[in-house]
Specification:
By secondary structure, the chain is mainly β. 15% of the residues lie in helices and 57% in strands. It contains 1 helix and 6 strands; from the N terminus they run E-E-H-E-E-E-E. Strands 1, 2, 3, 4, 5 and 6 form a 6-stranded antiparallel β-sheet that branches. The longest helix has 15 residues. The N and C termini lie far apart (61 Å). The model has no long low-confidence stretch (mean pLDDT 84).
Length: 103
């Protein structure tokens, strides 16, 4: 009996890069991959679209990371496991952090 109360949402870090932008600043760029699984395609799509709406074009500070900015690719569907539907979406995160160097 499928439950629509708790779909699976998985966030993975798929790589990234770092670039020194000043004597004490580093800009980091990460690519996150977000997966949503559910037996019902319409529910799975609504979950991934909700995640996209929350993240897309977000800009602000998060913890020690300054000027965090997210961009999202359009979600696409792939086959899930054991009859589930899986939607996947790439999210590009950019943020700045203070760089400290050892003396």
């Amino acid at each position: 009996f499928p439950s629509h109360d708790m779909p699976w949402v998985i966030v993975t870090n798929s790589g990234g890069s770092r670039k020194k932008t000043g004597p004490y600043d580093t800009e980091e760029r990460d690519i996150l991959t977000i997966y949503a699984d559910d037996p019902a395609a319409w529910h799975c799509l609504s979950v991934i679209n909700r995640v996209k709406a929350l993240l897309e074009n977000y800009r602000g500070d998060m913890g020690e990371s300054k000027d965090t900015y997210f961009e999202c690719d359009p979600p696409r569907d792939i086959d899930g496991y054991q009859g589930t539907i899986r939607y996947v979406m790439a999210v590009y995160a950019r943020f700045r952090e203070v760089t400290t160097r050892p003396n």
